[in-house]
Amino acid sequence: MVQFTRLFVSLCLIAASASAPTKRTVAQVEADIAKISSQVTALDNDIKGFPASGLPGVLNIHSTAQSLQSNFKTATSDVKANGAFNEADGTTILNDVLPIQPVLIGALSHIAAQKPAFANVPGAPSLILSDLRTLKTDEDAFGAALIAAAPADLEAQAVAIQNAIDTAFDKAIAAYA
């Protein structure tokens, strides 16, 4: 009976340690941001390739949007698991995010402007609208996590980046709504 109790307690401790949330590192958050950057660039390129790419282009845009959604979710989780950034790490993260902003805003502007071309592909406008809404939700969660983790003196800049991206999402969504 004593051996069973020891075994049971040992298994419980192993299970508890395995289920405990793992603290993420700033390096992991930076790797997540690099993936987001790559996906935003791919999305921008897919959008710029339309309408010449036709239906396969619409499907590529959708696939890239889904990958980007997944990357936003992972990054959000990792930022939250990391907790507050110190000044140096907050500056590094902000500098990693800054180059993404104009590319994402450009992609959203392009997709809004190409609404008439997407309307020529059956089902494309509703698919694009769905992707835009989901991307905005996921990007907002990521932005909120970054703002919450940012040092106080970097918070205003992080909020300004988030607001600019939100405005671009709102315009793109309005074009398809």
Automatic annotation (TrEMBL):
<dbReference type="Pfam" id="PF12296">
    <property type="entry name" value="HsbA"/>
</dbReference>
<dbReference type="GO" id="GO:0005576">
    <property type="term" value="C:extracellular region"/>
</dbReference>
<protein>
    <submittedName>
        <fullName>Hydrophobic surface binding protein</fullName>
    </submittedName>
</protein>
<dbReference type="InterPro" id="IPR021054">
    <property type="entry name" value="Cell_wall_mannoprotein_1"/>
</dbReference>
<feature type="signal peptide">
    <location>
        <begin position="1"/>
        <end position="19"/>
    </location>
</feature>
<keyword id="KW-0732">Signal</keyword>
